[in-house]
Write a structure and sequence with these properties.
With 441 residues, this protein is α/β, with parallel strands linked by helices. The chain contains 19 helices and 14 strands. The protein is elongated and about 85 Å long.
């Protein structure tokens, strides 16, 4: 395995803030791109103030999506600041922004402006609702786009109010679409030698992610509804309350349903004419779920997890954050000799999957099989942990992550090393407030 990452040498000029844009550029940075994050002097990315919780003066929200970036604080309302951005664009491969349509064009930083000086540039614009149309000038916030796109309409209890998803899924989906679009743009540029404009927005991203729910309406005009944790077309496929918590169980075919019935010691349901096919189970949902729910409530979650282990039926507990990061599947262990052999044997038998407490008592190292926890040493707050990259690659490994930058931490470095400004010019810009450098750097 070598350590050459696919985006090494690629420069990203990042004028985004909050979540969708920073999530996209963080994923590019994980693959080796140099990400130059442009922030407002004295204020920076809005999420720097989104707390509590804070660690020192840093919000954990900001820390979660800004690793592997360099921060330059530039006032882009000043013509000299605009000049700096244009100079950076000329030496970068990708320009990413999430301003309301037309705002950067009014400053001389729209695609038409950047294309003139950098025809190679991949210019990705992330907005709430697209470049044109009656609501294109609205600010794009996740909760509102989640509502307008229909996601909030289908999320929540069956007989209750609409519910906002627990994380900003519309922002995150848009960030992933932007990430993929930029990767496609880079390939296109390598084929043609020319850049292009990418229009990415929250509304389009979330509507595209409605998948079969949208298709149900478009093809057969079936209006969507809320199902709580359940599924509109598969029964059973939902959370069930246990004696001490919840377990999610799904039976996607008749064989899995029969297995569920055997595990629950309800064999009479297998041949019941009302439940012999999924279509019938959907029709008779309420009666069947009532029977299953009563049985699940009779035992502890741990008992059900033990009984379902190795059954071939999809299942799992509803974990809180503490349990998520105690899951053996989430981390990577460094072990020696007999401990490693014991771990492998235990995993095959399912012992550790069923009992995180046993696992933790045997082994004291930090991160787990999917390496979902990434540790970094932050310059002002010390060691921090954030969710790591979701994807692994066989021919290269992610390098040790650089912590999210302080506001303006790299201003002088970028002006000097990337744009070749001399000390006198940098001093003038600092004195005029066009740029700012973090005082600790």
């Amino acid at each position: 395995m070598n350590n050459i990452k696919p985006l090494e040498g690629v420069k990203i000029l990042d004028l985004t803030r909050i979540l969708a844009g920073p999530f996209a550029t963080m994923n590019l940075g994980d693959l080796g791109a140099e990400v130059i994050k442009v922030e407002r002097p004295g204020v920076g990315d809005d999420t720097r103030t989104w707390g509590p919780p804070f660690v020192g003066t840093e919000s954990t929200y900001y820390l979660s999506v800004n690793r592997n970036k360099k921060s330059i604080a530039v006032n882009i309302k000043d013509p000299k600041g605009v000049k700096i951005i244009k100079e950076l664009a000329a030496v970068c491969d990708v320009f990413v922004e999430n301003y309301v349509p037309g705002k950067l064009s009014a400053m001389g930083l729209g695609y038409e402006d950047i294309d003139k000086i950098a025809p190679h540039i991949i210019y990705c614009s992330i907005t709430g609702y697209g470049q044109t149309g009656p609501i294109s000038q609205r600010a794009g916030y996740d909760a509102v786009a989640s509502a307008v796109s229909g996601l909030m309409h289908i999320t929540g209890p069956e007989d209750g109010d609409p519910v906002r998803p627990g994380v900003a899924m519309t922002d995150l989906a848009t960030g992933l679409y932007a990430f993929g679009a930029i990767m496609a743009g880079l390939i296109q540029k390598y084929k043609t030698g020319k850049g292009l404009f990418i229009d990415c927005n929250l509304l389009s991203s979330q509507v595209a992610c409605l998948s079969h729910i949208a298709a149900n309406y478009l093809i057969v005009r079936k209006e969507a509804k809320r199902w709580g944790t359940a599924h509109g077309s598969i029964v059973p496929y939902q959370a069930f309350k246990t004696k001490d918590g919840y377990i999610v169980v799904g039976a996607g075919n008749n064989q899995q349903f029969a297995t569920v019935c055997k595990i629950l010691d309800l064999p009479e349901l297998i041949d019941d004419s009302k439940y012999k096919t999924n279509h019938l189970r959907v029709q008779n949902r309420k009666e069947l779920i009532k029977i299953l729910s009563e049985r699940f409530e009779e035992e502890l979650t741990s008992k059900w997890l033990h009984l379902f282990e190795g059954s071939g039926v999809p299942y799992g507990p509803i974990n809180n954050m503490k349990n998520v990061f105690a899951e053996p599947q989430a981390s990577l262990i460094k072990l020696e000799g007999r401990k490693k052999q014991f771990l492998c044997t235990s995993l095959v038998r399912g012992v550790i999957t069923r009992n995180a407490a046993v696992f933790q008592s045997l082994f004291t190292h930090e991160v787990l099989h999917n390496s979902l926890i990434m540790e970094m040493e932050h310059p002002t707050v010390g060691k921090i942990s954030v969710p790591g990259p979701a994807v692994r690659y066989s021919k290269f490994k992610m390098s040790e992550a650089r912590p999210p930058p302080l506001l303006g931490q790299h201003t002088m470095h970028i002006l000097k090393e990337v744009l070749r400004y001399d000390d006198g010019a940098i001093g003038e810009l600092l004195s005029a407030g066009v740029v700012a450098q973090h005082e600790t750097h």
